[in-house]
């Protein structure tokens, strides 16, 4: 992923507080006489000052800051930044710097640590070694697969993608349902309070939250119907797909009905008897959708995903696998989810627990061939996560999204 060296290079540690030292030969004679000054390209990129006075207190504050230097267009630099935000282990400072050698990012885990420059997986392993505990941001080692297991590896990659998309959708529906229950409870207190306690802004935010969740769920269903179901049918598993597609058809009217109910709420007088009646009815319908969706995902994971290895083996036997890498099938599936992996990517990711999120990031980085698109995805996620308290990221995905939704314009 990205332009990174296949082997990391450890730099000699610089004295605490001093700029990192990547030597470059100064101008002067190549041999004999006239020793030149050594200048760090990173120091030049980061600071226009040649000499500054050192504030001991500021130095102590900077001691624990993790610093990432690299090209603004390098996906590895952005992946490091996102991984460190999920770690929530220390303040993170990112400095776009084209001075990095060959465009490779540089990681410095503290002012007292040496600079590290290398491949993405190696740098992520250094992050895990320095900041213990979950989530583990480095992907597990993947030994070269034997030919007999290529189908299994490709199938597991697609299955992992499907499962994580299920978890995100489930949690966002859970978050919308919890917010709606809170609004119903507020509405019940209206008579005692003598004033409206549900605000129009809450209804609008609820509509946006549900609307985004609906878009992700619909796009996920289309991905299954376009990429997975046709080959599952041909592999002599027609009953599985027939049942799943029937459930997709039942869910669509339910989802549209809830969307219309939310639109109706926006036209009603806040706190009126009709407003409260629609609110309660909406809560009941959303709970039914939640239950149906959870059961549907459970059946898919039990009946459909275990068959993917046989499907992939059939594809190979038929010569329908143009991409020989294991990631070709998952790349094809992800390629159909344009909205989820562009405008809605931060939303989708806030439905995952930290360990799930870094697993999905690993999938995305392996399966996204367009570097500019990958950088855009990682940047958008980093910018949203930086708006959140680290404790929210680690505690509850739905609280994280509600926090970001309130702060969004």
From TrEMBL:
Pfam families listed in its UniProt record: Hemerythrin
Residue ranges constituting the Hemerythrin-like domain according to the UniProt record: 160-308
Gene for this chain: LOC123442002
Stretches the record annotates as Disordered: 1-63
Cited InterPro entries: Hemerythrin-like
Organism: Hordeum vulgare subsp. vulgare
Low complexity composition bias: residue spans: 19-28
Coiled-coil portions: none
Protein name, UniProt field: Hemerythrin-like domain-containing protein
């Amino acid at each position: 992923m990205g332009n990174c060296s296949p082997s990391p290079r450890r730099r000699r540690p610089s004295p605490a507080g001093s700029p990192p030292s990547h030597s470059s030969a100064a101008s002067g004679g190549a041999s004999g006489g006239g020793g030149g000054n050594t200048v760090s390209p990173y120091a030049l990129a980061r600071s226009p000052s040649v000499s500054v006075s050192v504030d001991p207190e500021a130095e102590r504050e900077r001691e624990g800051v993790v610093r990432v230097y690299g090209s603004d267009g390098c996906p590895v630099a952005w992946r490091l930044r996102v991984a460190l935000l999920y770690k929530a282990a220390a303040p993170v400072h990112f400095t776009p710097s084209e001075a990095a050698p060959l465009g490779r990012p540089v990681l410095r885990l503290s002012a007292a640590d040496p600079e590290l420059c290398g491949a993405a997986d190696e740098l992520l392993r250094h992050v895990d070694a320095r900041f213990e505990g979950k989530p583990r941001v480095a992907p597990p080692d993947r030994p070269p697969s034997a030919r007999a297991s290529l189908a299994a590896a490709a199938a597991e990659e697609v299955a992992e993608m499907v499962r994580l998309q299920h978890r995100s959708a489930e949690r966002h529906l859970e978050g919308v349902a919890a917010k709606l229950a809170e609004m119903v409870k507020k509405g019940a207190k209206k008579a005692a309070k003598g004033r409206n306690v549900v605000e129009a802004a809450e209804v609008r935010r609820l509509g946006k939250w549900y609307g985004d969740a609906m878009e992700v769920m619909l796009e996920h269903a289309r991905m299954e119907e376009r990429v997975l179901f046709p080959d599952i049918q041909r592999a002599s598993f027609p009953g599985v797909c027939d049942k799943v597609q029937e459930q997709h058809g039942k869910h669509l009217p339910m989802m549209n009905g809830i969307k219309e109910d939310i639109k109706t709420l926006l036209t009603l007088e806040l706190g009126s008897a009709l407003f409260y009646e629609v609110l309660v009815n909406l809560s009941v319908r959303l709970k039914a959708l939640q239950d149906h969706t959870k059961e549907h995902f459970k059946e898919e994971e039990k009946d459909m995903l275990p068959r993917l290895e046989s499907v992939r083996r059939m594809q190979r036997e038929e010569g329908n696998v143009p991409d020989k890498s294991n990631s070709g099938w998952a790349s094809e599936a992800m390629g159909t989810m344009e909205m989820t992996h562009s405008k809605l990517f931060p939303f989708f990711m806030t439905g995952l627990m930290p360990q799930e999120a870094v697993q999905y990031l690993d999938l995305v980085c392996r399966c996204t061939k367009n570097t500019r698109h990958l950088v855009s995805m990682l940047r958008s996620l980093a910018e949203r996560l930086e708006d959140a308290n680290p404790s929210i990221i680690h505690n509850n995905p739905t609280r994280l999204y509600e926090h970001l939704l309130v702060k969004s314009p």
